[in-house]
Amino acid sequence: MRKHISPCPKKSDHPSCKVYDIAYIRLGRKNLKNTLQYYLDFGLILCEETESRILFRSHGSSFPCWSVEKSDRDKVLGLGLFVSSQKDFIEISKIKNAVPNPSGRFGNAPSVTLNDPSGLPVDVVYKHQVDLEHPFEIKREWNKPHLTKRINIPQPAEFGPAKVIRLGHAVFLKQEFFENAQWYCDHFGFIPSDIQILPHSKEPVISFLRCDRGDQLTDHHSIVIATGIDDRLEHCAFELDDMEEIAKGRDWLLRKGGKSAWGIGRHLLGSQIFDYKRDPSGMLVEHFTDGDRFDDSVPTAYHLIGRDNLYQWGEDMPEDFLDTKLSFRKLKELWKGIFSGKQIRLQSILELKKVMDKSPRPWIKY
Q1: What are the strands, taking DSSP E only, across the chain?
Q2: Cα dist from 27 to 53, 65, 329, whole Å
């Protein structure tokens, strides 16, 4: 049976609620000890440690943003989103199969849990929006050709983990791209900032979703939904103060034996300066700074997908970054999805693989 090309997700006129930010990610990990040390070196702060769970927070908030829980295998366990309106929280609680939790996932704020179309638990956390705390502010004076601020004083050398300000966004691969992307728009008020489509079939395969805060500014994307061979968390990104912190964090993790995945560079969609690493499980995690901020007036933009619009400058994306090889495990998941009636199309995966395997800057030689 021939499957139709997915439509593009769009902003919902009447969403169930409007979330204002990503709250946290829950991960399952086989080895908690290795994970603990890695994320301390990554720049997070330890909140809680038990035999079954480790909670981390950023330097910008006391609320946990990263929960790592003991599991029989490495996987994503869930996602948290903040809602600040009591009315919205009550409305989302009325949705069929919504599960309320008066104390919340971490015992510090009430939440209600829904499952997205792929079965991922999504916690909507009721928490009044607060300004970030400011212990992370780093005073660095920069000398420029037209302005000298640092006189007779060397730039101080700093060694240690980067100071993570906040969890910025999460990218999910889904076999059912449109159903999931539209579900997040319909339930949580997300607005597609940019949608990437395949050049030949014109099928949408990636949607960058931002929160709808009205005329208040928000990140270019807090959630990204992308077509994938299997359903999984592809990467998460954490915001730092500036480029100096990006380089500092990169250097520290490499000193500690960490693995660089891609960077330093600057993205095109979202504009972030980025540096990607791999945690002990092999999952991608990103430090970023200087990302775009939009209000609700910016319309959705559409782009042909390719490696050339993944970044403005920096090293070319390494061949193993997106893991486009069709292994036996991936093919098994792909066939399972196809024959169970999911939206995933083999033609889409093959076309996506083809465009992402082509280097946009052939003059770069390694």
Answers
A1: 21-29, 45-49, 53-57, 66-70, 75-83, 99-101, 111-115, 121-126, 166-174, 191-197, 204-210, 218-219, 223-227, 232-239, 259-267, 273-278, 284-289, 293-294, 301-304, 311-314
A2: 10, 11, 21
Domain of 190?
21-132+161-356
Domains identified in the chain, total number: 1
Nearest-5° angle of CA 207, CA 230, CA 209?
15
CATH of the domain at 190: 3.10.180.10
Q: Is residue 7 part of a domain?
A: no
Using left for φ > 0, alpha for ψ between -120 and 50, and beta otherwise, residue 314 falls in: left
Residue 77 forms part of a structural domain? yes
State pLDDT tens for residues 78-124.
999 999 999 999 999 999 999 999 999 998 899 999 999 999 999 99
Classify residue 261: in a domain, yes or no: yes
Question: Each residue of 303-359: pLDDT tens digit?
Answer: 999 888 899 999 888 878 876 666 656 666 666 666 666 777 777 877 788 887 777
Dihedral over alpha carbons 227, 228, 231, 232 (to 10 degrees): -100
* DSSP codes joined into one string, 32-93: HHHHHHHHHHHT-EEEEE-SSEEEEE-SS-SS--EEEEE-SS-EEEEEEEEE--HHHHHHHH
pTM for this entry: 0.92
Q: Distance between CA atoms of 76 and 121, rounded to whole angstroms?
A: 10
CB-CB contact of 226 with 174 (8 Å) = yes
Contacts of 136 by beta carbon, 8 Å cutoff, 6+ apart = 59, 60, 163, 165, 241
Strands (E), 73-165: 75-83, 99-101, 111-115, 121-126
Is 342 within 8 Å of 176 (Cβ atoms)?
A: yes
Single-letter code of the amino acid located at 32: L
DSSP state of 269: S
